[in-house]
Amino acid sequence: MEPSSSSSSPSTSPLRRTPFSTYLFALLSFVVFLTVLYSEDLSCLFGHLGFDINASDRSIANTENEGEKLPFAIGETIKGCNLFSGKWVRDNSTRPVYQESDCPFLPPQVTCRGHGRPDKEYQYWRWQPHGCSVPSFNATLMMETLRGKRMMFVGDSLNRGQFLSMVCLLQSIIPEHAKSMHKNGSLTVFSAKDYNATIEYYWAPFLLESNADDADVHRMSDRTVRKGSINKHGRNWKGVDIMVFDTYVWWLTGLKFKILKGSFEDKVKDIEVLSTEDAYRMAMNDMLGWVDKNMDLKKTRVFFTSMSPSHNISTDWGGSPNGNCYNETTMIENPTYWGSDTRKSIMQVIGEVFGSSRVPITFLNITKLSSYRKDAHTSIYKKQLLPLTPEKRANPAGYADCWHWCLPGVQDTWNELLFTKLFYP
Ligand SMILES: *[C@@H]1O[C@H](CO)[C@@H](O)[C@H](O)[C@H]1NC(C)=O
Ligand SMILES: *[C@@H]1O[C@H](CO)[C@@H](O)[C@H](O)[C@H]1NC(C)=O
Ligand SMILES: *[C@@H]1O[C@H](CO)[C@@H](O)[C@H](O)[C@H]1NC(C)=O
Ligand SMILES: *[C@@H]1O[C@H](CO)[C@@H](O)[C@H](O)[C@H]1NC(C)=O
Ligand SMILES: *[C@@H]1O[C@H](CO)[C@@H](O)[C@H](O)[C@H]1NC(C)=O
Ligand SMILES: *[C@@H]1O[C@H](CO)[C@@H](O)[C@H](O)[C@H]1NC(C)=O
Ligand SMILES: *[C@@H]1O[C@H](CO)[C@@H](O)[C@H](O)[C@H]1NC(C)=O
Ligand SMILES: *[C@@H]1O[C@H](CO)[C@@H](O)[C@H](O)[C@H]1NC(C)=O
User: Fold this and answer.
1) Stretch 333-360: mean pLDDT, rounded?
2) Which of 39, 98, 333, 366 is the most buried (most CB within 10 A)?
3) DSSP three-state, residue 218
4) Distance CA 2, CA 317 (A)
5) Could you report the per-residue pLDDT of 97-106, keeping only the tens digit for each?
6) What's domain 19-203+230-248+277-423's architecture?
7) Ligand 5 atom closest to Cα of 236?
8) What distance in angstroms lies between residue 192's CA and the mean position of ligand 4's atoms?
9) For ligand 3, mutation pick of 74, 134, 138 (most atoms within 8 Å of CB)
10) What are the alphabetically sorted keywords of the record (predicted)?
11) Where are the chain's structural domains?
């Protein structure tokens, strides 16, 4: 990622990166061309072209690091090892990484055992990449690195889960009196006083300005995002040292998405309707533009977490009709599984945008590894917004939350992978 692609040193980095991005872009164009031509299954095509899971990860890694040391790096992962290709292994000795009851910062939306979940198998799995190992999370190293610094998670409620997991992974080494968490509107800040460090979460479900930006009241079906508005939220992200973005689930309304061209105050609103993919592509490009303009990538790191899969439709994995993640206690064994809620077209947009960009962002491709974990969602085991009526109570699957994850759980693994990419890129 060094020299930085920020505007201060535009001459070196594009030169070094161009051949690869051009290659990737050409490859993707070719894939799209072939898809149109033969309407073949994409995964099959990727296989034919050797654009396999490993190769695609390398491609992303290469755009960020071609030999020079990244900020915070203390070592490196075995060359060519795709951290995101692997399997879950049962681990009774190191899991869970913390106990639900030991982390006082977990809100009642994620504490599944505390809300009556009877099984706890979901807490005992560790991610094992095929080609290498994930180093164990070292909270001391992470906190020393964060001394005098800010780490921020920006995005939707899935990123909030990852933020909470990070807080829990770290908080145990900080004494009671020296840690605290405060929420003010869109921003939640965990402070570690003795380290002068903060780990923050900022609610911006689309990254851009939208009509769902109220951190507490944002349930709506008619979602609109304002074009070119990333600075609305972005001004609150300046000065962050380690940034983690995500955005996905709120884009899923249908095949089309409404983009507001003027402002939300206009009496007559100027609306442009785009395909969800094009709208998403716009947001990704705006995010990269913001990073390029506002972050010094010689000193900071930026991560992007891919789409968090849901398990809302049990027929996806061959379950009974009308079911979902409710009452699921085992994971999906089929290695090629890909749920219908998880859009491949969005993943393709991410690949295209990152692949052709000179802005070095580290991609956390957690989609596939999480897609096996139908057993790990909060389901009915969380605080409900409203008291349950007897009718609701009688049909638990009807109100199960199959998007969010229990903690401790799957999102601790996302952070272990983030830890790995941060220190051993
Ligand atoms: C872990 O514990 C479970 C339940 O106690 C047991 O069934 C399983 O065999 C153990 N697995 C390993 C790898 O030790
Ligand atoms: C991915 O890489 C690992 C280790 O480098 C290797 O064992 C595995 O066969 C590769 N998978 C594919 C699909 O190429
Ligand atoms: C964790 O990191 C600290 C600080 O870098 C180091 O002193 C310690 O040895 C590490 N612990 C382990 C278990 O690697
Ligand atoms: C505390 O950290 C902030 C950055 O988050 C920095 O600007 C400030 O100088 C630090 N203060 C001290 C006393 O180190
Ligand atoms: C909360 O944020 C607002 C606007 O960012 C600010 O004016 C206010 O002082 C903050 N309140 C507290 C208690 O920090
Ligand atoms: C889950 O699936 C049900 C039934 O198909 C649907 O009514 C509901 O809107 C879905 N919920 C979410 C959050 O996707
Ligand atoms: C939950 O699953 C078990 C077996 O997997 C089944 O026996 C039981 O009836 C299910 N419970 C409900 C309420 O669906
Ligand atoms: C993320 O990983 C999945 C499965 O391993 C792969 O199909 C996809 O192409 C990867 N996405 C990108 C953008 O590399």
Assistant:
1) 95
2) 366
3) coil
4) 43
5) 999 999 999 9
6) 3-Layer(aba) Sandwich (3.40)
7) 5
8) 12
9) 138
10) Membrane, Signal-anchor, Transmembrane, Transmembrane helix
11) 19-203+230-248+277-423
